[in-house]
């Protein structure tokens, strides 16, 4: 997916520089937003699942009964492994994936600019 997105971004950027800049920029903006939204959602999911253990630890767990304290230990242990949105061949949707695709698309754009 990252390769396809990068090629699409690069070719649309090349089209924006060569001919029909307004239409190509609108297409490029749409594709970038369509890629950014799942990456942003995946990054927020990752950040929120990592912050659950901190919130549970900062609560008044020491005022609870013993059974609840044991349950809180299980919650904190479970929260050490974050949840994330899968982008199966690549890893997960997050900001580093978005940045990787944007950098690769810029590389394709410069390659297309040099070849034509």
UniProtKB/TrEMBL annotation:
Record's subcellular location: Cell membrane
TM ranges: 24-43, 93-112
InterPro entries xrefs: 7tm6_olfct_rcpt
BP terms from Gene Ontology: signal transduction
Predominant subcellular localization, coarse grouping: membrane
Keyword annotations of the record: Cell membrane, Membrane, Olfaction, Receptor, Sensory transduction, Transducer, Transmembrane, Transmembrane helix
GO cellular component: plasma membrane
Membrane topology, record value: Multi-pass membrane protein
GO molecular function terms attached to this record: odorant binding; olfactory receptor activity
Domain of life: Eukaryota
Name of the protein in question: Odorant receptor 14
UniProt source species: Apriona germarii (Mulberry longhorn beetle)
């Amino acid at each position: 997916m990252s390769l396809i997105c990068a090629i699409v971004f690069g070719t649309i950027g090349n089209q924006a520089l060569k001919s029909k800049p307004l239409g190509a920029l609108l297409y490029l903006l749409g594709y970038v937003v369509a890629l950014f939204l799942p990456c942003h959602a995946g990054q927020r999911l990752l950040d929120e699942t990592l912050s659950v253990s901190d919130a549970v630890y900062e609560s008044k767990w020491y005022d609870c009964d013993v059974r609840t304290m044991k349950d809180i230990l299980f919650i904190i242990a479970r929260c050490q492994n974050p949840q994330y949105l899968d982008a199966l061949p690549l890893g997960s949707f997050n900001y580093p994936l978005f940045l990787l695709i944007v950098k690769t698309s810029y590389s394709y754009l410069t390659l297309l600019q040099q070849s034509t």
